[in-house]
Design a protein that fits this description.
With about 325 residues, the chain is α/β, with parallel strands linked by helices. The chain contains 16 helices and 8 strands.
């Protein structure tokens, strides 16, 4: 049994705290929001975010960050990406040397273009920062539906330790050393999901969705490889796996926000309707910034930015994607002639 602190009591933090508790660990759930902690202590359920998923009475739920970080074997950081830096900053004074912190949020910081693990390492230099990602909607993990993820760490030993902590008969975990690839796949798929949702809202079909998923992972991988990540990672759970689920699932808030924009909502109206942090909107600008910094062509990401921030009609963006210059699908493969 390990002692685990889950920091962030939204949908994902709540679902993971139950998964880890059911795996036999001693789990504390922390939230920055006193009202949320009071509600969770009283009702043992996050009715607005994860209805029907009950937390056990014995699980400690607290706003006390110092206490949460006193001596956990593992800290799981599950706050949405816009709060990763501020939460890591608050954590720093209480984190002991070598503390394993598993980031499970997905995003890239708009201003600095840093990944979330880079942000955590900057704020808490003495921590051992790892990542868990993959196609894993909290609603389904909360219900115990079979799910697969990947955990990434610098060392095999830590990755295998975390694999054994999270793994259960309904939650299968793989390992990889490619932290950067895992993080980029998780962050950038949200931008493609906005496009996939918009296509649904416009009434386009499955062909369009498949095109966005396939060409989307191609541009994410192109960028990732230029940044030093491994191509293989993008064809795994945290890459194409997460992209498929996010573009197709009814649970995806990014897809839903995109759908509303396809139906004519503005970005602000769509975000207000979804009532949750739509991380793809934040990651879209960062993705564009990365594509410019690394001089990688990212046509879908580019068009999503134009629709989100320049008022370009989505149907026009689709037409511009369809009418780009003719391309080879496999630029690295040689021809016979
Ligand atoms: N929901 C999922 O299915 C899922 C699955 C995998 C990964 N993720 C990732 O996990 C992260 C969290 O997602 P979520 O679905 O739990 O989001 P969420 O919108 O449900 O999280 C909201 C929670 O964030 C916390 N919070 C709010 N304001 C805060 C502040 N100022 N400082 C610190 N914490 C604050 C509160 O606990 C609040 O309940 C995201 O990056 C998401 O991409 C989510």
């Amino acid at each position: 049994m390990a002692k685990i602190s889950v920091l962030g009591a939204g949908s994902w933090g709540t679902a993971l705290s139950l998964l880890l508790f059911n795996n036999g660990h001693d789990v504390t759930l922390w939230s920055a929001l006193p009202d949320e902690v009071n509600m969770l202590r009283e009702k043992r359920e996050h009715a607005s975010k994860l209805p029907g998923v009950k937390l056990p009475e014995v699980m400690e739920i607290t706003t006390d960050l110092e206490r949460s970080l006193k001596d956990p074997d593992v800290a799981v950081l599950a706050v949405p990406s816009p709060f990763t830096r501020s939460t890591a900053h608050q954590m720093a004074p209480y984190v002991r040397e070598g503390q394993k912190i598993v980031n499970v949020a997905k995003g890239v910081e708009e201003k600095t273009l840093m990944t979330l693990s880079e942000i955590i390492e900057q704020e808490i230099p003495n921590a051992d920062v790892c990542v868990l990602s993959g196609p894993s909607h909290a609603e389904e993990v909360g219900k115990g539906l079979p799910t697969t993820c990947v955990v990434s760490s610098r060392t095999r030993e830590t990755a295998e330790y975390l694999q054994s902590i999270f793994m259960s008969p309904v939650f299968r975990v793989y390992t990889t050393p490619d932290i950067l690839g895992v993080e980029l796949g998780g962050a950038l798929k949200n931008v493609i999901a906005l496009a996939a949702g918009t296509a649904d809202g416009l009434g386009y079909g499955d062909n369009t969705k498949a095109a966005l998923i396939t060409r989307g992972i191609a541009e994410i991988a192109r960028l990732g490889v230029m940044m030093g990540a491994k191509a293989e990672t993008f064809y795994g759970l945290s890459g194409i796996g997460d992209l498929i689920v996010t573009c197709a699932s009814v649970h995806s808030r990014n897809r839903k926000a995109g759908y509303l924009m396809g139906k004519g909502y503005t970005m602000d109206e769509a975000m207000a309707e979804v009532k949750m942090v739509v991380e793809g909107v934040y990651s879209a600008k960062a993705a564009k910034g990365l594509s410019e910094k690394y001089e990688v062509e990212m046509p879908i990401i580019n068009e999503v930015n134009k629709v989100l921030f320049e008022g370009k009609p989505a149907s026009e963006a689709v037409m511009d994607l369809m009418l780009r210059d003719k391309k080879v699908e496999t630029p690295m493969l040689p021809w016979e002639d």
